[in-house]
Model the fold of this input.
Amino acid sequence: GHGHEWEVFQQVSLPADKVLMPGVLDTTTSHIEHPRLVAQRLMNYIRLVGVDRVMASTDCGFSTAAGAMNIPTDIVYAKLQAMVKGARVAEEMVKEEREKI
Done:
């Protein structure tokens, strides 16, 4: 997985004209991520590069490996729903953190 890669932005500045689309869903498993996990993954990036420069995305496509078993369509949609819900949770987390300042 790529869950650790947010750490790069502790040392490296993101160019001003770039937006990150971190993969917050694992497309190789039928496990449906909890929205809080999605939010936590997003917040790792948001805290380093800013909320306006992060957009939730999948880790890859859902049918990208030759010969791999495809994830059932209903699971794909459930994972995408979890991503949307997680982005909303992250939005609330950002608001809460701003209120503390």
Q: What stands out?
A: The mean pLDDT is 91. DSSP finds two helices and no strands in the chain. The helical segments are 35-49, 73-100. Residues 90 and 96 are 10 Å apart (CA to CA).
